[in-house]
Design brief:
heterodimer, A: about 220 residues, mainly alpha, 9 helices, B: about 240 residues, globular
Chain lengths: ~220, ~240
């Protein structure tokens, strides 16, 4: 990374692994679980959060010296809400079907704790460029988990990826279905999202013992 | 009857935490002890009971397509529904601050017990989610909106109370080290959500009404429901 200094690069790479917003900081869980039954929805959601968090972090960071600290939550909410309205209208205009699947969860980006959490923890104390990198890094970390969960749920649940039937046709019995493989429809249900994230946390913490909690 | 149906539906079938995963952040963060969980849960019920009917009025008389007709015929064509996110969140944030001030003034004891949780609530997705679901499910009257607010709040309260109680006990169990804390909480919540699915047939007498989602999902849900019912019978 010639463009970025070592410190800046760390801002992006840290949230991808050891300081992941979902599995370590426990932020932004709601949307991560509800919309991951399909890979496509998770990717779109990630892009939406990338935009909102990147732009929002810069705006808040530019305003950080003029926001009175007593009303900062309302100011932050208004900034996020404006950005989310933009995302919502763009989705409705260009991907109407998808915006139906995401339904209220686009609106819920506003209260996605990942956004408020990063505003409070980072953007209020740092300059715009750093905040931008932090926003990008954290939303990439968020995207990573969303895409992993979406990948496994769609692959095991409906035997396809992004709508393509990669495992063959379950009705005509081609591909792996010829050997008696069945889709596990249970993966499409909400509880399996929780359990999948639980397993990701398990894997991550077994690899890095420093992250283990004591209780 | 309508009220009763909505009440049970919002608590058990469309439970905020187990069916739609709203308010997960505070659900995971504040569920280490039963006493704090009760405080936050009570605050959520309280705020939802106020904000959902308020947002219903806002939606009905200002934001909906043609809602401004009461101002005169020339306003009848306005559709401000694209503003609903910003209006809803502004209402919630202001109400939370207002409620905080009022409680502090009139009931210092309640303020001390809820105190730290009130600001947290403004960014709890369950609250905004309640208003957005109220809008997308087209709840008809103000009374029903009030009912919906309270009952979804109670559903959330039940969920956080249950997980807090389990987490207090699980501290004495030998959980695999990497799963301790967050990991096991996720998995327990998943199992609880599977349990809550068994409420699915409660209001329809077992006949699952098919939502516009994938049929596979509904079928599996039905299977899960049957399975859970069988288990219940066996236990009895």
């Amino acid at each position: 990374m010639g463009l970025l200094s070592k410190k800046d690069a760390k801002l992006i790479s840290d949230p991808l692994a050891d300081n992941n917003p979902i599995t370590i900081q426990v932020l932004g869980i709601c949307s991560a679980l509800a919309i991951t039954a399909e890979l496509k929805a998770s990717i779109v959601m990630s892009i939406a959060v990338l935009f909102v968090l990147g732009a929002g972090n810069v705006v808040i960071s530019l305003m950080r010296n003029i926001i009175p600290s007593k009303i900062r939550i309302i100011v932050q909410l208004i900034v996020v809400a404006t950005l989310v309205i933009i995302v919502d209208l763009v989705l409705k205009a260009f991907a109407y079907e998808l915006s139906k699947t995401l339904s209220v969860f686009v609106g819920l980006i506003i209260t996605n704790c990942i956004i408020m959490g990063r505003f409070e923890a980072f953007a209020l104390a740092n300059g715009p460029w750093k905040s931008f990198l932090d926003g990008i890094g954290n939303s990439l970390g968020y995207a990573l988990i969303l895409i992993i969960v979406g990948f496994f749920r769609e692959l095991l649940g409906s035997g396809s990826l992004l709508g393509y039937k990669v495992l063959g046709d379950p009705i005509e019995k081609t591909g792996v279905y010829a050997f008696g493989y069945e889709n596990n429809g249970f993966m499409l249900l909400a509880p399996m999202a929780l359990i999948t994230v639980g397993i990701i946390i398990w894997v991550q913490r077994s690899r890095n013992e420093a992250l283990i909690e004591d209780n | 009857m309508e009220h009763l149906e909505l009440f049970f539906k919002a608590i058990f079938i469309d439970n905020m935490v187990f069916a739609t995963f709203l308010g997960m952040c505070s659900y995971l963060a504040v569920s280490k002890k039963v006493s704090t969980a009760v405080g936050l849960g009570a605050a959520v019920i309280f705020v939802m009971a106020i904000t959902v009917p308020l947002n219903w009025l806002l939606d009905m008389y200002i934001l909906k397509d043609g809602a401004l007709a009461w101002l005169g015929p020339e306003y009848a064509e306005y559709d401000l529904s694209f503003l609903s996110f910003i209006m809803f969140i502004a209402t919630i944030a202001t109400m939370v601050q207002l409620v905080e001030i009022i409680i502090e003034k009139f009931s210092p004891a309640l303020y001390n017990s809820l105190g730290i949780f009130l600001p947290l609530i403004a960014v709890n997705c369950a609250i905004l989610g309640g208003s957005l679901f109220m809008q997308s499910r087209e709840i008809q009257t103000l009374g029903l909106a009030f009912n919906y607010g309270i009952s979804s709040g109670i559903g959330w309260f039940l969920a956080i109370l249950a997980i807090a109680a389990i987490r207090e006990k699980i501290r004495y169990s030998n959980v695999p080290a990497p799963l301790r804390g967050l990991g096991i909480t996720f998995i327990i919540t998943g199992l609880m959500a599977i349990g809550f699915m068994s409420f699915g047939g409660m209001l329809t007498g077992g006949e699952e009404e098919k939502p516009a989602e994938k049929t596979v999902q509904v079928e599996v849900k039905k299977e899960a429901t049957d399975l859970a019912n069988n288990e219940k019978e066996i236990k009895e």
